[in-house]
Write a structure and sequence with these properties.
Blueprint: E1 3-7, H1 12-23, E2 27-32, E3 49-53, H2 59-69, E4 73-76, H3 83-88, H4 90-111, E5 116-122, H5 147-166, E6 169-175, E7 178-179, H6 188-200, E8 207-210, E9 216-218, E10 220-221, H7 222-235, E11 241-244, E12 249-251, H8 252-261, E13 270-273, E14 285-286, H9 291-297, H10 305-321
Parallel strand pairs: 1-2, 1-4, 2-3, 4-5, 5-6, 6-11, 7-10, 8-13, 9-14
Antiparallel strand pairs: 9-12
Helix pairs in contact: 1-7, 2-4, 4-5, 6-8, 6-10
């Protein structure tokens, strides 16, 4: 039986990845911070999942857990992942993401464990992309537009360097936007869905607050994304980056309109721009090419994004029922 360690297992992607790997018959271990909420994984039976307290910002903590588990694969998903927060707390974002990744790599190296580490990178690494430069390939210049994007570039390059310098088996994935149930409410698709669910329950007036609706994004369902991660560690070349994306663009405003159309109150809902939701600088055009990854793994998305939007809205309809009034 293969053994995996997932950092950030209690998060959006980590919880879906844990479900997939358990169904694949893999022995799953998860690294969590002591105060991390466990709602996303509370439905998983305790005999199917072993949790370990670990702070990625502390090398000794990482060495202890990685040395104890000795995983065949590490999926490194933990970190500060909310782009707007990276402007509010740039040093915290850089420290958590870059030092955290360095500590995972150092723990593998110092413990001498033969493991494959997947680094969950981001399309935000590409940053400024001109219309003529899409679809984005892995050779596209990295021009990050946020401290978060900068942190992911550094993590990406660290993984390339540790493979070349020490032979650490790193697999670098650059995931474009992925959505679905359990997505944090601060992220745009989930935030819109929550607002609609609250409006339906008369908990908010029928006005959706929005930021920039003109950006174009490449969306994939989270269940397709974690399936790609599992294929990546088994088939990808170490030390090389791989885009994971659908190759199709949605304008954020069109995505919002579709979500609104799913509501029985669609005729009553208005949209209002909120200046506090605008970023200091935005990434206007993130649409990727997945040809490199698809050629090696045969992966392709199976879930239509319309289904993803329905899942997200239904998740928040159920979630808001239990929220205090």
């Amino acid at each position: 039986m293969k053994k995996v360690l997932i950092t950030g297992i209690s998060g959006f992607v980590g919880s879906h990845l844990a479900e997939l790997l358990i169904n694949e018959g893999v022995e799953v271990h998860g690294a969590i911070r002591w105060r991390a909420p466990l709602d996303n994984i509370s439905h998983i039976p305790s005999n199917k999942l072993t949790l370990h307290n670990m702070d990625i910002r502390d090398l000794v903590s990482c060495m202890n857990v990685i040395g104890e588990v000795k995983p065949d694969y590490i999926f490194h998903l933990a970190g500060q992942s909310y782009v707007p927060e990276s402007w509010n707390a740039p040093a915290e974002t850089l420290t958590t993401n870059i030092v955290g990744t360095a500590n995972i790599l150092e723990a593998i190296r110092k413990q001498g464990i033969d493991t494959v580490m997947q680094m969950a990178g981001s399309s935000e690494e590409y940053g400024l992309v001109l219309p003529k430069e899409v679809p984005i390939t892995e050779s596209h210049p990295l021009r990050p537009q946020s401290p978060y994007g900068v942190s992911k570039v550094a993590c990406d390059l660290l993984c390339q360097q540790y493979y070349r310098s020490y032979g650490i088996k790193t697999v670098i994935t650059r995931a474009f936007n992925h959505e679905g149930a359990r997505r944090g409410e601060v992220f745009v698709t989930s935030n819109f869905a929550k607002q609609i669910a609250m409006i339906e329950k008369k908990r908010l007036p029928p006005v959706i607050k929005v930021g920039n609706l003109g950006a174009r994004r490449d969306y994939t369902d989270v269940k397709d994304m974690v399936r790609a991660y599992w294929l990546a560690v088994q088939h990808c070349t170490y030390g090389e980056p791989y885009n994971i994306c659908s190759g199709k663009a949605w304008v954020i405003g069109d995505m919002l309109n579709y979500l609104i159309a799913l509501s029985p109150m669609s005729g009553e809902i208005k949209v209002e721009t909120d200046p506090t939701r605008m970023r200091p600088s935005d990434v206007p055009n993130l649409v990727g090419s997945c040809n490199k990854f698809r050629c090696i793994t045969g992966w392709a998305p199976k879930i239509d994004f319309v289904e993803t939007l329905m899942d997200t809205l239904d998740y928040w309809r159920a979630k808001t029922t239990s929220l205090p009034k």
